[in-house]
């Protein structure tokens, strides 16, 4: 007989400054029951249109700085054809960055841990100058030990 396991949690992150931020420890802290899952999946869904989720380098902070620089260079603010600027010059660029990177991740769970690579971490991309608190719906499913 298998021991199917399902859990859904709302993770609320405090406001972050614009840029890319490691949030792996916040996700793990919100799901202490993950240690009971032998094999499964964690799905993360960010409920916002001006921020993003991605997995990337977790050790060298210059990677996060370079990512911010790249996206600011690639998706410029104050382009004359942007019409959706109600909340400021970073409004439409934030929506574009969110669409490029995405708002959801699925991560394997093995033997009670996220099966991230040695140098991988979960990142929040905050694309607004003043984005505020961010909410993630985390859905954990699998076979419990």
TrEMBL record:
Pfam families in alphabetical order: YjbQ
Lineage top rank: taxon: Bacteria
Alphabetized InterPro entries for the sequence: UPF0047_YjbQ-like (IPR001602), YjbQ-like_sf (IPR035917)
Protein family membership: Belongs to the UPF0047 family.
Protein known as: YjbQ family protein
Species assigned in the record: Alteromonas gracilis
Source taxonomy: Bacteria, Pseudomonadati, Pseudomonadota, Gammaproteobacteria, Alteromonadales
């Amino acid at each position: 007989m298998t021991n199917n396991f399902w859990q859904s949690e709302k993770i609320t992150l405090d406001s972050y400054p614009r840029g890319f931020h490691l949030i792996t420890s916040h996700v793990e802290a919100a799901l202490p029951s993950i240690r009971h899952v032998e094999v499964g999946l964690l799905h993360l869904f960010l409920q916002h249109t001006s921020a993003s989720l991605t997995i990337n380098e977790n050790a060298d902070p210059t990677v996060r700085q370079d990512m911010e620089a790249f996206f600011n260079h690639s998706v410029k603010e104050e382009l004359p054809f942007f019409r959706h600027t109600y909340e400021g010059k970073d409004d439409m660029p934030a929506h574009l960055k969110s669409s490029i990177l995405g708002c959801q991740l699925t991560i394997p769970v093995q033997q009670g841990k996220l099966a991230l690579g040695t140098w991988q971490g979960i990142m929040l991309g905050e694309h607004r100058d003043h984005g505020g608190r961010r909410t993630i719906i985390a859905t954990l499913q699998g076979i419990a030990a």
